[in-house]
Amino acid sequence: MRSVHTIIFAKAPLAGQAKTRLIPALGAAGAAALAARMLAQTLSEAQEAALGTIELCVTPGPGMASWRGLTVPPGLIWSAQGQGDLGARMARAAQRASEKGEHCLLIGTDCPDLRAPQLREAAVALQDHDAVLIPAFDGGYVLLGLKAFDARLFADMPWGTNAVAAETQRRIAQRQWTLSCLPALHDIDEPADLRWLPLDMAVQIDEGMHAK
């Protein structure tokens, strides 16, 4: 199978700044602890999938104090998300990979159900499709895989709404690209989503909250 470049988009897991929509349920420290745990799991699953290069595309940029102490897989590449909305930041990262002739998977850190098997399945699907998508049950998506770059997949997208996955599929169809759409998974964004947390992660977060 051809090597695939996995690009993980992450925000520093700082109290009061990370997973802010979960603060009413978890508190600022609990929400940040969950963000840190999901980031660590995403890195671990990407390493286990062993698809090729892993890039951690972050805000604030690499080298900032926010990232001190983070354990990352050996050989991981750091990059800065830079300015602009989510679409502009994703587009830059996808374009960099495309310019190197690489297939890429774009993922975030908000989906504990996105494990190594799903990453491998997406990479396999990308071998004979132009794009691969794993939708989120909230209408967004948790993974977008691309063989080639097209800025129109990211520009003027209604980010944060339940129309993102459907609109992305529509735009891919407009390009006349082939698409593999894999089973939907749950993002953890709102307090109601916490019921989808894996039990081991939920216990860790609960213990962390009570320890403070």
Q: Note the run of SSEs as H and E.
A: EHEEHEHEEHEH
Note the beta-strand portion: 15-25%
Low-pLDDT windows of residues: none
Tell me the span between the first and last alpha carbons.
47 Å
For this entry, give a set of tags.
Spore Coat Polysaccharide Biosynthesis Protein SpsA, Chain A, 7-stranded mixed β-sheet, 5 helices, alpha/beta, 36% helix
Outline the secondary-structure elements:
Blueprint lengths: L3 E8 L11 H27 L4 E6 L17 E4 L5 H14 L3 E5 L8 H12 L3 E5 L5 E6 L17 H11 L4 E3 L17 H12 L2
Parallel strand pairs: 1-2, 1-4, 2-3, 5-7
Antiparallel strand pairs: 4-6, 5-6
Would you mind describing this structure in some detail?
- This protein has 212 residues and is of the alpha/beta class.
- It has helices at 23-49, 86-99, 116-127, 164-174, 199-210, and strands spanning 4-11, 54-59, 77-80, 103-107, 131-135, 141-146, 179-181.
- It has a 7-stranded mixed β-sheet, with helices on both faces.
- Helix 1 packs across helix 3 and helix 1 packs across helix 5.
- The radius of gyration is 17 Å and the shape is globular.
- The termini are far apart.
Task: Tell me briefly what this model is.
This protein is of the alpha/beta class and 212 residues long. It is built from 5 helices and 7 strands.
